Amino acid sequence: MSVSNGRQFLAIPGPTTIPDEVLAAMHRPAVDIYGGGMVELTETLLDDLRKVFRTEGHTYIYACNGHGAWEAAAVNVLSRGQKILVLESGRFAVGWGQMAAQIGVEMEILPCDLRRAVDPDALEARLRADAKGEIKAILVVQVDTATGVVNDIPRIRAAIDRTGHGALFMVDTIASLAAMPFEMDAWKVDVAVGASQKGLMCPPGLGFVAANERAKAVHRTADLRTSYWDWTGREGGENYQRHCGTPPEHLLFGLRKSLDMIFAEGAENVFLRHRLLANAVRSAVDRWSEGQALGFNIADPAQRSDSVTTVRVAEGRDPQQIRTYCEKKANVVLGSGIGALSGKAFRIAHMGHVNAPMVLGTLSVVEMALQALGIPHGKGGIQAAVDSLGGSVAA
Ligand SMILES: *Cc1c(COP(=O)(O)O)cnc(C)c1O
User: What would the mean pLDDT of 350-360 be, rounded to a whole number?
Assistant: First the structure.
């Protein structure tokens, strides 16, 4: 027996639910790449991405996923043999660093246990020890999608500033952009990367990079530059050059629509919506944890992301069982544990095009799974989620 007929709900941290409006915006013929509004469309998107990243700097759009955006950021500012420092807080910063290492830089990891955010004091100590300034770039993620942590980017920046270290500060916002506040200029981030398929509610296939003047200055002498990713190449006057070839037209149509939706809702409201829905998820997980069979991966509540929640299961329990039940019996797809949390956790994503019924429905299905599988859990998780939302969303 199952109750799974009906639309599948994707509660994985990317790709996320694509709004019907975005799907509809892409359902149209291709246009001339030199005309047909393509030139203006590119202009408005590059401009509006500045608003999303909160920067006066330069923005670039690539036909690629997040990994492509990582490579774009790395090759434009790094040179062979240089040292980079990766601030670990899960899977993704290290993945980015490994990619850069494969291209030709030397990577050092500032280790962190997987239940905590990056420690700014540990970074400060490491930078003070780098008297010769060998570290040329510091790589970190704002939200690590594996652990469910949100790193405090302003505090990390402040730690760098206390040492006066000149390394470029490079931040992956792929799982936080348009879900949690990010202030590229105010936080003095030199290079930021994003992607289309998470908070931005688009299909996978667009990667974004934003760079400030400092990064642009370093770019001039970077020797890992390659033609497709190259910023300078993309600043040519022709639209064809801005995309280094044919623009990914339909993805751009979709992005135009998703940015319109985000601006219409208002960034502040987008962030608050994510915060309140995340609070609902956390209220339920908190209650379930009373059964001792599952609990938050991130120990400190202030370090939990508003875009994804990573739930650990106790030793000897299989999170895959919960995922399989939710998918087979109720058509809800949860994220699996990845990296060091593989086989130890599942993930509930709550980013992008999500509202109360989507999140409450997902939580209800998880609770249904806990019940059906006989996994001990505190009762009333759904009530706690409802109370959280009812108490914060005023009439
Ligand atoms: C999803 C994700 C990536 C990778 O993006 P892909 O599009 O899968 O290449 C990188 N960093 C973070 C923080 C992510 O959440």
Answer: 98
Strand intervals (E) in the chain: 9-11, 58-63, 83-87, 106-110, 135-141, 143-144, 149-150, 168-172, 191-195, 206-211, 294-296, 308-313, 332-336, 345-349
What amino acid is encoded at 254 in this protein? G
From 145, 173, 347, give the residue whose CB has the most ligand 1 atoms within 8 Å, as the site to mutate: 145
Q: Which CATH class is domain 9-16+266-390?
A: alpha beta
pTM over 0.70: yes
**Span 382-391, pLDDT tens digits:** 999 999 999 9
- Report domain extents, the chain: 9-16+266-390, 31-263
For ligand 1, atom 8, name the residue with the nearest CA.
66
* pLDDT tens readout for residues 149-167: 999 999 999 999 999 999 9
Residue 14 Cβ < 6 Å to ligand 1: yes
Q: Is 177 in the pocket of ligand 1 (CB under 6 A)?
A: no
Q: Which fold has domain 31-263?
A: Aspartate Aminotransferase; domain 2 (3.40.640)
